[in-house]
């Protein structure tokens, strides 16, 4: 079994990258995707089920961080998935506030290491927000880069070409050995994808835990709040778009990430706030409408009132 860990800060494009993987999955492999979300309500599982549910088994671990408060649950889930489903590949998507070194320590534990033949980690960074994040969370971001072997510098379509080169130089100053792939929407060519995921035996050796990696690093879970709700109602598309724009403007607090799937009179839609940009996409029908918001100083009562105002009358 091969384990791929796809990690990166909130809104870097981890779920988009995994959705892309499911468009052309490894041939002949049984794939399981294990999604860990910081928020009390999971959304990524629904998103991936809509695009990859026929290709991979989707398993959710919401309401915490697998590198700290949910470390035991993560370990148990990995052992159970290996025994129950016997997958060829497990793709792990940890929450954006998790530290990769602590996740690796769990995976390199005696009871876990015998489960897999190869371990590959993929780090996504948001090119459009990198300078802002490195200022506000320097230690966390630098430590994440130091543990990287492959970095997808994502969302390069949102910055100028000269800036992409400067960002690559900045990343390699932190970790001279890392390989950086500039991407948009997490897309790579087939050879690059096979190399970083270890498909068909391609690429360099997988991750090996080094003595300098065995340190206790704090993630960012204690610096953020979450808000989540599920609904069986129908929403007004226009009101939802206005609501997400207000999230972006800081009306309800310092919102770093927001995403939701909603039933509207004509169709189901996905709305996301990431990198200070709101995106809308039509998606397959889901079991229910759901929203997850992560940030600081979140005005939860005001969010409840505003979301109620987005319902179809």
Q: At the first level of CATH, what is the class of the largest domain? A: Alpha Beta
Structural class: alpha/beta
Integer-rounded radius of gyration = 19 Å
Tell how many strands the DSSP assignment holds.
Answer: 12
Mean pLDDT: 89
CATH architecture of the largest domain: 3-Layer(aba) Sandwich
The span between the termini is 51 Å
Shape: globular
Q: Total domains, how many?
A: 2
Describe the main β-sheet briefly: 7 strands, parallel
Strand neighbour order, sheet with most strands? 3-2-4-1-5-6-7
Order of helices and strands: EHEHEHEHHEHHEHEHEHEEEEH
Which topology of the largest domain does CATH recognise?
A: Rossmann fold
The CATH homologous superfamily of the largest domain is named P-loop containing nucleotide triphosphate hydrolases
Describe the structure.
- With 313 residues, the protein is of the alpha/beta class.
- It has 2 domains: 2-213, Rossmann fold; 225-308, CobW-like, C-terminal domain (Hypothetical Protein Yjia, Chain: A,domain 2), CATH 3.30.1220.10.
- It is 34% helix and 26% strand.
- The chain has helices at 14-23, 44-52, 71-85, 100-107, 110-113, 130-136, 138-146, 161-174, 190-197, 237-249, 300-308, and strands at residues 2-8, 31-36, 56-61, 89-93, 118-126, 150-154, 179-182, 225-231, 254-263, 268-274, 277-283, 289-296.
- Strand 10 (268-274) and strand 11 form a beta hairpin.
């Amino acid at each position: 079994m091969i384990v791929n860990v796809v990690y990166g800060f909130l809104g870097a494009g981890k779920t988009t990258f995994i959705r892309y993987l499911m468009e052309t999955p490894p041939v002949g492999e049984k794939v399981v995707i294990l999604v860990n979300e910081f928020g009390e309500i999971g959304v990524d599982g629904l998103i991936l089920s809509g695009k990859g549910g026929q290709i991979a088994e989707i398993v959710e671990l919401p309401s915490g961080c697998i590198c700290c408060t949910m470390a035991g649950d993560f370990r148990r889930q990995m052992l159970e998935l290996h025994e129950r489903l016997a997958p060829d590949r497990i793709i792990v998507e940890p929450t954006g506030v998790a530290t990769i070194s602590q996740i690796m320590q769990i995976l390199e534990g005696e009871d876990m290491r015998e489960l897999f033949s190869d371990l590959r980690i993929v780090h996504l960074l948001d090119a459009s927000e990198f300078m802002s994040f490195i200022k506000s969370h320097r230690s966390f971001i630098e430590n994440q880069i130091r543990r990287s072997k492959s970095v997808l510098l994502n969302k390069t379509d949102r910055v100028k070409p000269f800036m992409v080169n400067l960002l690559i130089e900045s990343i390699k100053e932190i970790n001279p050995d890392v390989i950086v792939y500039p991407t948009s929407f997490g897309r790579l060519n087939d050879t690059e994808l096979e190399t970083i995921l270890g498909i068909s035996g391609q690429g360099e050796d997988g991750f090996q835990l080094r003595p300098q990696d065995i340190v206790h690093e704090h993630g960012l879970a204690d610096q953020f709040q979450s808000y989540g709700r599920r609904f069986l109602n129908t929403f007004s598309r226009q009101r939802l778009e206005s609501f997400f724009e207000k999230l972006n403007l800081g009306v309800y607090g310092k919102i770093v990430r927001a995403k939701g799937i909603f039933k509207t009179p004509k169709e189901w839609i996905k709305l996301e706030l990431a990198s200070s940009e709101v995106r809308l996409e039509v998606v397959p029908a889901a079991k229910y409408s759901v929203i997850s918001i992560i940030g600081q100083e979140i005005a939860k009562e005001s969010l409840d009132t505003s979301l109620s105002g987005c319902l179809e009358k």
